[in-house]
Amino acid sequence: MTTLDDLPIRDDLRGKTAYGAPQLDVPVQLNTNENPYPPSPGLVDDLARAVRHGAATLNRYPDRDALDLRKDLADYLGHGLTAGQLWAANGSNEIIQQILQAFGGSGRSAMGFEPSYSMHPIITGVTGTRWIDGAREEDFAIDEARAVALIEEHRPDVVFLTSPNNPTGTALPLGVIERILAAAPGMVVVDEAYAEFARAGTPSALSLLPGNPRLIVTRTMSKAFAMAGTRLGYLAADPAVIDALLLVRLPYHLSTLTQAAARVALAHREELLGTVDALRAERDATVDWLRQRGLSVADSDANFVLFGKFPDRHAVWEDILDRGVLIRETGPAGWLRVSIGTGDEMAAFRAALEGVLG
Ligand code: PMP
């Protein structure tokens, strides 16, 4: 039997294993930070109608520049943004890949502050870019002065800031982003995949876009928008940044059906984002409950909670799984992450953890 090792694969990929959270068929799935609420029957009908309409032209390529969708995304974000400042792709993972293809690559470097989203270093590596970990503080914050010193020392071509951060839930003050933007010689990417879950008073980096052509803010419809299956990520930046991404994107990367589904979801945003308040309340209740149980819990502005610390976190993860609840073994040693589900799902999680802890 031929194995991967027998193939003339790139040296830097040799020995690596594929990234991905386990996709297991268990009753309660709280491991990939999805929104637990499925689309309503009315939204499903509208999606089906849009797909039917799009299907009639599937012999033709889609709008290569996805202009209508980008206009809808600009309208959603506000901040005076226009379609020319928006770009969309198949999930924000593809957005991140395009950014690194355009601004990273051989002989270049990207810096992030771990623990953070693990795909940042992975896509960095896959694009032949060198990864530099700036590391977060004990409380998962980014120390401004230390970050600036590191950036001045390493002069990375791309800096990733994730706010709210995955897997810790930590939001970054705008002041820290501004200081890093002033110090960084290259592009600064603020990954705001979880922005809609942030509590009031946690402003988006979108407000920093005017006058900052090296700033990119990335978003996704996979989380608060409850459209993970659609695969639609996007970014807002200076129009010159979009010109750069046009050089690396594959022609017709965003299918007719994806564009149509995303536009229907945006038209239904009130309904879809209507679940955010309930998820925030469930998150805060989960944090309180875990703390009452005597556990360490990271403050969260997202739709998940990082808690610990367990001498053998894998055993705890497995024990919870045996009770029908799938959470995520991720983050620093000893910690586990639970995504926020429905009230019933969180009750099942609490019961499972209670059972494990005794
Ligand atoms: N950024 C962060 C911080 C994430 O946590 C995720 C998903 N886990 C993504 C980006 C990618 O999401 P998607 O490709 O579904 O848009």
TrEMBL record:
Alphabetical keyword list: Amino-acid biosynthesis, Aminotransferase, Histidine biosynthesis, Pyridoxal phosphate, Transferase
Residue ranges crossing the lipid bilayer per the database entry: none
CDD domains for the chain: AAT_like
One GO molecular-function entry: histidinol-phosphate transaminase activity
Pathway terms, separated by semicolons: Amino-acid biosynthesis; L-histidine biosynthesis; L-histidine from 5-phospho-alpha-D-ribose 1-diphosphate: step 7/9
Catalyzed reactions: L-histidinol phosphate + 2-oxoglutarate = 3-(imidazol-4-yl)-2-oxopropyl phosphate + L-glutamate
Names of required cofactors: pyridoxal 5'-phosphate
Matches recorded under InterPro entries: Aminotrans_II_pyridoxalP_BS (IPR001917), Aminotransferase_I/II_large (IPR004839), HisP_aminotrans (IPR005861), PyrdxlP-dep_Trfase (IPR015424), PyrdxlP-dep_Trfase_major (IPR015421), PyrdxlP-dep_Trfase_small (IPR015422)
Xref: SUPFAM superfamilies: PLP-dependent transferases
Matches recorded under Gene3D superfamilies: Aspartate Aminotransferase, domain 1, Type I PLP-dependent aspartate aminotransferase-like (Major domain)
EC numbers, comma separated: 2.6.1.9
Enzyme type, top EC level: transferase
Residues with PTM N6-(pyridoxal phosphate)lysine: 223
Domain Aminotransferase class I/classII large: 28-348
Alphabetical list of HAMAP family matching this protein: HisC_aminotrans_2
Quaternary structure note: Homodimer.
Similarity comment text for this entry: Belongs to the class-II pyridoxal-phosphate-dependent aminotransferase family. Histidinol-phosphate aminotransferase subfamily.
Record's protein name: Histidinol-phosphate aminotransferase
Source organism of the structure: Microtetraspora glauca
Originating gene: hisC
